[in-house]
Amino acid sequence: MRWIFLAVGAAIVVVVAAAIIVLPSSSEKPVATPATPKPSRTEPTPKVSAVTDRCGTFETKEQAPYAVTGYWITPKSNPCTWRKQLQEIHSVGGDTIIRIGYGLQYRPVTGSGEIKTKDGELDSLYEACEEDGLTCHEAAERDLKRANPGNRVGRTYVYRTDESFGESLFRCPEMEHAIQTPKRTYFRLITQPDGSDDSTCDFSSEATSYDLILVAGKPTDSLKELLDLADQFGMRVFPALPLAPRDPKTPTRANKKHIGTLTTLTRRILQDYGVRFAERESLGGVYQPFEVQMSDTLADNPTLEVYADQHRIVEQELPGKPILISPYLDARKRVAFGQTPKQVAEGFRALAKTGVGIVAPQDSRGTGKVGLYWPDERESEVDERLRPVVGESTYDTAYHGSTRDYYREMSIAREEMLMAGHEVQLWANVEAFEPSGDQPCAPHGTRGKTDKKRLDQAVTMAGRYVQKIVSYMWSDFMTCGRPSLEKEIIADWRRPIAVDAIRRGRDNQDGVEVRGYNFQGATVTVQWSGGTQELAVPSVGWLDEDPLEELPEGMATAWVPFNWSQVPAGEWVRIGVKVPSGLSTTEPLHVRIDT
User: Fold this and answer.
1) Is the backbone of residue 56 left (phi > 0), alpha (psi -120 to 50) or beta?
2) How far is CA 533 from CA 200, 227, 235, 559, 577, in A?
3) Other Cβ atoms closer than 10 A to 4
């Protein structure tokens, strides 16, 4: 994976270069790429080929590298489960792990300081948090009143995690500390409600109200264990930042009343990460799990204030480590909040301005909110697996655009942001599930298993507009069903996937340039109304297997001569790729040019 951003100057050169290329169609602009490949940061590599520990012996080498190179995983209490997941993910080419996280929650308390759930019941997770025979809330208020009798705990928050933290979590040790119990370690933080987090630790001069944050952690740190495993496999981890409390009236937005406290908790956690992990190559960055919809009104969403605040903290505490976010798309025409590709591009611009380093929009095919189709397929009936979401209709009736349209527009917006000085990458988060299915995968809900053919199609539609392809998620969507999607990839990983084709001349010859995966010894097939032509790359063309800095890992570029004048102007041409084993692309490219 490449972790360095393009220089603005290079982006400008590419825009000029791209202007002389004849494009596939008026709506199919290839993303600009640098004229000269730039060096990237050294890739992490497995330390050894196999490791033996208390969980057994496991391999650390790739077995079936696929185009998707990063996955979300859910927290697990058993460290052997972590290890098994990383081994499976790395075996199919994964080099990036993104963790699902937990949320900061505002909670009511009883008269004696016992923590309640949102429904008013006692929360058993915090029953064991006691000091000197008092609840942790009572003990905190006692200590505050000792400093100044007018002090009090105004608001109480809780945050659960399977991580543990060091002393760098605490700013004022006389008021803040860890509380050990047999099963959990609680961390008591006393903060200012506005998020200022006063470094003077003066609790006596002026009576005031403080926020109490009780973090329910573990005696051992799961993040350290995960980073250690990532070192073994040569992978990078994005741990989740605390999720913002939601607005009770609009749950898709962060609650502005609690952003100050969230900022303080984020700062403390990242201070601790900075002391313990800043130099760890396996720490790729951090993930903010609060999802927002990509829209042209996104700039008004208070959640962007969360992103901006956290970006500033990351810059201070973990310089060089980006924030990753994964907003979602909704292209449906029959809902009031469906957005066009250009509206989504405006949302991308708003996100880039917050300083986040990686925007990985969900392709939203798994939820049925966007379809995978080509421009000449607009009048075709939607995939039957989408009907539970959009009904029986054509793609044009159901959606404002296809996944490809959205990633293309966001790539154009990204170029503008790079030129304006915002360092941001665009990743594709392809959803490895269906809206429903005969083989449900999620512990809750109806989301079902998909297949590799459909996942290949999602990779194709992301095109060369993105810098990396990741997927939500490994457990349980990649491992459920018979055969599981993981097993399908292992059996079929050598199949070529073409993602983009453009007309490009070479040495005074007209031709076609195709980009994609697994092109060794490939033959490019061009099909149009006048016939079909098969062009063997080793015989008549050339193959570059070293992708440019801006392209996903493993992407190759092939060129073959082809006389485009024989194709009627405006006609849609199908372009596929097959390899000597007989495997061919399951999703041909649909290309139209002016000849």
Assistant:
1) left
2) 75, 50, 42, 14, 12
3) 12
Could you give the dihedral angle defined by the CA atoms of residues 108, 111, 112 and 114, in that order, rounded to the nearest 10 degrees? Answer: -20
Q: Which helix (H) or strand (E) holds 11?
A: helix 8-18
CA distances from 74 to 83, 193, 446, 473, 476 (A): 13, 31, 18, 9, 9
Neighbours of 237 (CB within 10 A): 24
* Whole-angstrom Cα Rg for the chain: 26
Retrieve residue 594's tokens: 């002016």
pLDDT digits (tens, 9 = 90+) for 80-101: 898 899 999 999 999 999 999 8
Q: Domain coordinates of the chain in residue numbers?
A: 66-100+289-492, 104-216, 497-593
The predicted-structure confidence for 125-178, as pLDDT tens digits, reads as follows: 999 999 999 999 999 999 999 999 999 999 999 999 999 999 999 999 999 999
Query: In terms of C-beta density within 10 A (0-12 exposed, 13-18 middle, 19 or more buried), how is residue 38 classed?
Result: middle
Closest C-alpha to 451, from 491, 415, 398: 491
| Beta-carbon contacts of residue 147 (< 8 Å; ≥ 6 apart) | 175, 203, 204
Got the DSSP string for 420-444?
TT---EEEEEEE-SBSS-SSB-SSS
**Can you give the three-state secondary structure of 176-203, one letter per residue?**
CEEEECCCCEEEEEEECCCCCCCCCCCC
Q: From the centroid of its chain, how far is CA 345?
A: 17
Before 247, cis peptide (omega within 30)?
no
Is the pLDDT reported for residue 402 higher than 50?
A: yes
DSSP SS3 for 225: helix
**What H or E segment, with its residue span, contains residue 277?**
helix 259-277
Average pLDDT of the residues in 458-475: 96
Handedness of CA 266, 271, 272, 274 (dihedral sign): positive
Strand-strand pairing, 185-191 and 177-180? antiparallel
Domain 497-593, what architecture? Sandwich (2.60)
Count of CB atoms situated within 10 Å of the CB of 245: 20
Task: Report the predicted TM-score, pTM, of the whole model to 2 decimal places.
Answer: 0.91
